Task: inverse folding
């Protein structure tokens, strides 16, 4: 698997992208209200704080919240079908991501998953999710 194109980092997302070089999944936390959020932002979604945001490592374990099988290639050369999903991490935040490693029809809502990394040419990587073995 390979991430064909991923967005450039900006001032807010650079720490998050840099962690993907080490295959670490960071989640932004707010010390002011104690909530986590994703994707990274310059202010807290919950209380609006801009000064109390910090980064923590997520385990990469989660469950499938919802998913869609994409049958029509969004651009020439894209491999279809593939699965776009909302994955709820154990820490509570939701990632919009891809499910890999199974036939699209084999997935169900509530499946347990763990993170894998789809490398890009510049050393960064995109988190994708595979079925968690033994569950
Ligand atoms: Zn907050």
Result:
């Amino acid at each position: 698997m390979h991430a064909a194109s991923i967005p450039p980092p900006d001032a807010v997302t650079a720490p998050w992208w840099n962690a993907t070089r080490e295959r670490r999944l960071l989640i932004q936390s707010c010390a002011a209200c104690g909530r986590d959020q994703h994707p990274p932002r310059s202010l807290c979604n919950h209380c609006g704080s801009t000064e109390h945001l910090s980064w923590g490592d997520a385990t990469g374990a989660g469950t499938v919240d919802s998913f869609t099988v994409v049958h029509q290639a969004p651009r020439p050369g894209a491999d279809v079908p593939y699965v776009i999903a909302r994955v709820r991490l154990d820490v509570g935040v939701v990632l919009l991501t891809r499910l890999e490693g199974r036939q699209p029809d084999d997935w169900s809502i509530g499946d347990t998953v763990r993170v894998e990394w789809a490398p890009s040419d510049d050393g960064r990587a995109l988190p994708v999710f595979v079925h968690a073995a033994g569950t």
Notes: The chain is about 5% helix and 40% strand. The radius of gyration is 15 Å. The first helix runs from residue 14 to 20.
